[in-house]
Specification:
The complex is a heterodimer of chains A (about 475) and B (about 475). Chain A has about 475 residues and is an all-alpha fold. Chain A is built from 17 helices and 2 strands. Chain B is built from 17 helices and 2 strands. A two-stranded antiparallel ribbon of chain B has the order 1-2.
Chain lengths: ~475, ~475
């Protein structure tokens, strides 16, 4: 083994590299940046997750202690659903800052998620953030380029390639030797970061997310390996180190910065956005001001109430409304909820359709940018991609509908029993208290499972593998075609 | 000599295609970015036009309905709950609109305009009537950011400067042509300077000519007098920014290292100025001026909602607006339900709390912005970003001004309609015609900081140039 050509090339290249200030400068930078970003990420995670936990608890406390009131009044008071964050937030912040943090759940209305944290961040926030994700996606690929651009070109410039090949070393051995040396250098840079992060996860009982993190690191390895192969391939094809560096840097710039931005521009041309004002107008048209009292409102509610009342009288076999055991108001208000839900589904469906059609192009951009594939996958694993957000909104809305149904049915079946019975048709005198509020389940967001995440991002995973194999093929082919001038 | 160097550089750049590729990249990206920016500008303008139209239609309809009621109504003291003359109904359902019209420079620098709302709808009881509070923006697109001209200026042009200049001297040394140049008695300092000057003219020339021509042909409406002045400011700053990067290239080349080292150092500077320094300064600004949590804000407001007492709220409200204290009722007063004033006061109390929260957030954000403004001299990229955002009026300062004016306006609006509830009076058509109207004009801005940044950029360029000069003189 020790005498094999590959081993000797690895050792020679590795020793030359680690003796240079360049390697240790870059490795040191990675370590310091990773440590600082992990520390910042951890404190940010602790801060945000503590606030969220406190908010969830407070929201529940408010619900349970809202005092005695009519269940429909409680529906107006409503509740608030907060989207929790996962520990992978400290590595990949994803869309967390660009989507609302909470949804107000109330009767009659489906609300959007409100308050984007990005609106409360510094203007420089959009230059990029100090996170391990930023380091792995943008900076380490650049460092790989800086370490690998001269792998073959410098041998050509110093005329040592001719000597190497004349010593009966095959191009295959040369390729594997150089490749392993590069991987060794890369490993020295990233394995400590991986081990420190794993240690943090184990120590802080983040064990449910260790598989996510492991997959994320595997994705980073695939992504960075792609850059290793491309650096080797271009270095082998280039006449000088300078031209190799420029080409590689151009590739980095185009794939990591320009393609994603161009995709945004093209996606907005192909699927033009609409304003929230437009959305409001179409929503109002669909809603036709139903059940809105006041100026320009229609009093459809009274007609519907009368219909429901007569149906119930038939069902219960009573001739007069006051003899009904159930309260038609509960059924009528539930019907308005159900009708409203159909309209809201269409309205919010419009937004989802817009995002989906724009994101289709983002998905296609992975063919031109390995960064996009990695970014989508890492956001998915960190539970802060668009699918996770939509899943949260869906669950919150399901809870809202369930909650409102519980309240409305309580009015329907219980408001005419007991002491409040004497007030006739009105539901208003009927009140519920703490015991009832407590009996209603709390909203708990159930995060997407790992299999579902991988299935959502299967094209990103496939794309990362395709980039890996295509770049490996390119590197191998370039080395085979090495020319000595 | 300069003519010869320029001719040689042109021939060389043409032969190796570097000038053509750079020129093509500038033209392509500048064109796409202006289109992208103008698309966003046009989207905002169209939306605001629709809002203004909707407001006109709403007001005309209400006035028509009121006039109909006025002509048919003989009983001046009775009012139906669905009457447009009912003050509480108008208070709760009449929509008000405020907006921040985009500056035409939004087409060149989008700034923060994709994040902050540039219009708001409200009624007396709700401060935001839209289904989605902020403008509908794909979060993925927000995260990545739009490709506007500011992006091309700040990120791409320096890279083109680096790509064309990293091996200015080292390339000639490595190719062995530098000796020939020296043998002709040309001093390296002058030679390097003229070569750089040629590249500066090429890059900036293509950029400025294409930007002006493209804008003039595609978007002539932008180029009115104020548009021309603002565009001139952007182009002037861009000239200084590109000059800085050329000076840096001059300095790095002057140290006489090989092309590889020059490339590494320059790319390192680019990453440092455009990624690392902004992230570090941004993080420090956020640590120095933490913004209160929005999660807790909603809960605090809900707590206030539970604990609020209508009588107490009414007392506070009337203390704030003593002119609304009901005097003896006039002859034509209508019978309104007792709890309306209390309801109004309670709503106002919630708005006040919300306003306090918003002010806290804006104060902290402005604190961050001021902090960043002071630290910006460390990075030319940050200075450019702050300046371009300010020129296009899409920075935090302009959005916070809009928010403040919006808050002041709705207080005035609510008070105007609230007066009819307290005095128990029907609304006449003339009353609604006098309802305060929204207007938003950009006040002349104090943009001294842009001048200071321009001076700093010039000084930075001079320092780099001087450093290069000293080094080259020593080598001579």
């Amino acid at each position: 083994m020790k005498n094999s050509a590959i081993y000797r090339i690895v050792i020679k290249d590795f020793v030359v590299s680690i003796r240079s200030g360049k390697f240790w400068t870059l490795a040191g930078f990675v370590f310091i940046f990773a440590s600082v970003s992990l520390w910042l990420g951890q404190s940010q995670y602790n801060r945000v997750s503590t606030i969220k936990a406190e908010a969830i608890q407070q929201a529940r406390h408010q619900w349970e202690n809202q005092g005695e009131k009519n269940p429909h009044g409680a529906g107006h008071f409503g509740s608030v659903a907060f989207k929790p964050i996962t520990p992978l937030y400290m590595i990949e912040a994803g869309l967390t800052d660009y989507v609302g943090e909470w949804v107000y759940l109330e009767t009659h209305k489906q609300n959007s998620a409100e308050k984007r944290p990005a609106n409360d961040r510094s203007v420089l926030f959009r230059f990029g953030q100090i996170t391990p994700g930023f380091l792995f996606r943008f900076l380490i690929p650049l460092f790989v380029i800086l370490l690998g651009y001269s792998t073959f070109s410098s041998e050509k410039e110093q005329n040592t390639l001719r000597m190497l090949l004349s010593q009966s070393i095959t191009s295959k051995e040369l390729f594997y030797g150089k490749l392993l040396s590069m991987f060794l250098q890369l490993a020295i840079m990233i394995v400590p970061v991986f081990l420190v992060t794993m240690g943090m996860f184990l120590m802080q009982d983040f064990s449910p997310f260790i598989p996510h993190m492991f997959i994320l690191f595997m994705a980073y390895v695939l992504y960075l390996s792609t850059f290793v192969f491309i650096a080797i391939g271009i270095s082998a094809r280039s006449r000088t180190s300078g031209s190799a560096l420029i080409l590689l840097f151009a590739f980095w710039l185009i794939s990591t910065i320009l393609i994603p931005r161009l995709t945004v521009t093209i996606s907005e041309i192909l699927s033009p956005p609409f304003s929230s004002f437009d959305l409001k107008v179409t929503h109002d048209e669909k809603q036709d001001n139903k059940y809105v009292y006041g100026y320009k409102g229609r009093d459809d509610f009274s007609e519907m109430y009368a219909e429901i009342e007569s149906e119930l009288m038939q069902e219960y076999g009573v001739g007069d409304a006051d003899s009904l055991e159930v309260n038609p108001f509960g059924f009528a208000i539930e019907k308005t909820e159900e009708e409203g839900q159909i309209i809201y589904d269409k309205t919010f469906g419009q937004i989802n359709d817009l995002y989906k059609s724009q994101n289709k192009l983002h998905r296609k951009s992975v063919a031109f940018s390995p960064l996009s594939a990695l970014h989508f996958l890492s956001m998915g694993l960190a539970h802060n991609d668009l699918q996770a957000h939509e899943d949260f909104l869906d669950q919150a809305e399901e809870y809202r509908r369930d909650l409102m149904k519980t309240l409305n049915m309580d009015i329907a079946y219980n408001s005419r029993k007991g002491k409040n019975n004497e007030e006739g048709n009105s539901h208003l005198p009927y009140v519920q208290g703490e015991e009832f509020w407590k009996s209603i389940r709390t909203f708990e967001y159930d995060e997407l499972g790992l299999i579902k995440i991988i299935s959502n991002h299967k094209y990103d995973v496939i794309s990362l593998f395709l980039w890996f194999f295509a770049s490996a093929f390119f590197a191998n082919w370039s080395v085979k075609k090495l020319k000595i001038n | 000599m300069i003519r010869h160097i320029f001719k040689y550089e042109w021939k060389k750049g043409w032969a190796d295609r570097s000038l053509i590729i750079a020129g093509f990249a500038i033209v392509l990206l500048t064109g796409i970015s202006i289109e992208s920016g103008m698309q966003w500008l046009s989207f905002q303008q169209t939306t605001l036009q629709k809002i203004n139209r909707a407001e006109e239609v709403q007001l005309t309809t209400i006035l028509k309905d009121i006039k109909k009621y006025e002509s048919n109504d003989s009983d001046t003291t009775f009012i139906k709950l669905n009457s447009p003359q009912h003050p509480i109904i108008m208070y709760a359902s009449k929509r008000g609109y405020t907006s921040k019209p985009p500056s035409v420079m939004t087409g060149f620098a989008i700034g923060q305009s994709d994040l902050y709302p540039y219009y708001r709808l409200f009624t007396g009881i709700e401060d935001q009537l839209l289904l989605v509070e902020d403008e509908i923006q794909n979060p993925m697109n927000l995260l990545i950011g739009k490709l506007d001209l500011a992006f091309v200026i700040i990120y791409v042009l320096p890279l083109i400067v680096i790509a064309l200049g990293f091996n200015l001297m080292s390339g000639e040394r490595e190719a062995g042509t530098f000796k020939l140049v020296r043998n002709q008695g040309i001093r390296p300092r002058k030679y390097l300077l003229f070569k750089l000057f040629f590249r500066f003219l090429w890059i900036f020339g293509i950029f400025i000519i294409f930007t002006i021509l493209y804008t003039a042909l595609r978007f002539p409406q932008i180029l009115n007098i104020s548009g021309i002045v603002l565009l001139a400011k952007i182009l002037g700053l861009t000239a200084l920014y590109i000059l800085f990067w050329h000076s840096l290239v001059f300095l790095v080349n002057a140290y006489g290292k090989n092309s590889e080292v020059n490339g590494l150092v320059l790319v390192g500077c680019w990453v440092f100025y455009l990624f690392l320094l902004p992230s570090i300064i941004g993080t420090m600004a956020e640590i120095s001026f933490p913004v209160p949590s929005r999660n807790l804000q909603i809960l605090e407001e809900r707590n206030h909602n539970i604990s609020i007492d209508s009588e107490e709220a009414l007392r506070d409200y009337l203390n704030r607006f003593p002119e609304l204290v009901p005097k003896s009722l006039e002859k034509d007063s209508i019978q309104l339900i007792d709890w309306y004033p209390g309801f109004l006061a309670m709503q106002d109390s919630i708005f006040q709390l919300d306003g306090q929260y918003k002010n806290q957030v804006w104060d902290q954000l402005i604190g961050q912005q001021e902090w960043v403004k002071k630290a910006a001299f460390l990075s030319p990229a940050i200075m450019m970003r702050l300046s371009l955002d300010f020129i296009s009026k899409n920075d935090l300062f302009h959005f916070s001004t809009y928010q403040k004016k919006h808050d002041e306006y709705i207080v005035k609006w609510r008070k105007y309609l609230g007066k009819y509830i307290f005095r128990q009076k029907k609304l006449a058509a003339t009353d609604l015609e006098d309802l305060p109207r929204w207007s938003f004009d950009y006040q002349p801005d104090s943009n001294i900081f842009i001048g200071i940044y321009a001076i700093i950029l010039t000084v930075m360029s001079l320092v780099c140039g001087l450093g290069a000069n000293l080094k080259l003189n020593k080598n001579d």
